[in-house]
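Hello,

Our lab assistant flagged a job as stuck in the queue for most of the afternoon. It eventually completed. Since we weren't sure the result was trustworthy after the delay, we are filing this so someone can double-check. Below is the sequence as submitted and the structure that was eventually returned. Let us know if re-running is recommended.
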Amino acid sequence: MKVHILTIGDEILIGQIVDTNAAWMSRQLNLRGAQVIGKSSVGDDFTGIQKALKKAISEADVVLITGGLGPTKDDITKKALADFFGVEQVFHEATWERIQKLFKRWGRGTTPAHRDQCFMPANAELLHNKMGTAPGMWFEHQEKIAVSMPGVPYEMEYLMEHEVLPRLVAHFPGSPIAHRTIQTVGEGESRLAARIEDFEEQLPQHIKLAYLPNLGKVRLRLTGTGSDQEALELEIEKKALELEALIPDLVFGREDDQLEAVIGRMLLANHLTLGTAESCTGGLIAHRITTIPGSSAYFMGSVVSYSNEMKQHLLGVRPETLEDHGAVSEQTVQEMVKGAVKRLGVDIAVAVSGIAGPGGGTPEKPVGTVWIAVGNSNTIKTEKWQIGTDRMKNIEYSAVQALNLVRRFVGGALPECTGQVGV
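-- returned structure --
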């Protein structure tokens, strides 16, 4: 199955928004063995849409279109599609009734534009959009398929997952394919590759390993193809287990596991509570933890002690510690952990203090210097990271490493001595 992704909207061409839809769709299609042969973007222009669609449908089996289905006058995708397929637009009563019910539930009235939104190309098979007012549209034309979806990401994702992808897989049955994604944290791509080099070189030709790096984390994706789905699933799982056994200290989950969710499950399983004491991360660690539903069962709170005064007043960091060693030091984050455990009444606390940049560095402590500590009332472990000069990357990377330090502490995987780690 060859797929072309066509994104419609002036806002994308002028850089007002970033096209995340195409990237998300590409990942999902790849997992199902489809080949994305092209991506293109056009503005809200009738002729431009038709030209782009004509080219895409001549080259691909499937064209996935996003954008231009709203109620405003610049949303002209449906008109362009109707003209392209040589059909009239017809009013869809069921969609109009659904929109009226939605707006009534929201306590708002509809407008004539919402009624106009219910005119659809006559040859469109409508796909139910539970997340919004505009349905998706499925077209079959000369043994090709075109699908039009809203550009709102969560609406597009719902339609893809519940309507479009199942239909495409049924329409274009392909060779068996299997995937396993292993989530790792704590090593960069190059160091990780060095550790698993022999494993990668010994993989059979029909199994490939891909590295998908992010700040502080790397996803390892094994993809296999074959003739027997069941046998392939068994083989790819065996290889995934072999790979995990080579790097047990780095693996925190599979597929779409989130580090903060994994930590939450570990804390619950061990009946432990957690708090954070944050300086340079400004509450980002706490934010990530609390994005997980049910985190109130184990996360008690956070102290964002950005200034030295707040470190002293809220966490009990001693003035002489700050004077002798500075805010960005092993001694300071250790005292921040002690203070957080006591003030927040938690079993475990994690503390971070660093120089995010772009200013504030010294020859002894350049920008990107970060100290992280995790501990309880008996034991504290620390790490020093030397990251980089980009402020946001330093903050985000520090949050990831702090979470990983919590994971390792709860799991008992930390060494006995204080560590210093460079990036």
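-- support follow-up --
The delay was a queue issue, not a problem with the job. The result is valid. Residues 259-422 form a domain with the Maf protein fold (CATH 3.90.950.20). The longest strand covers residues 177-185.
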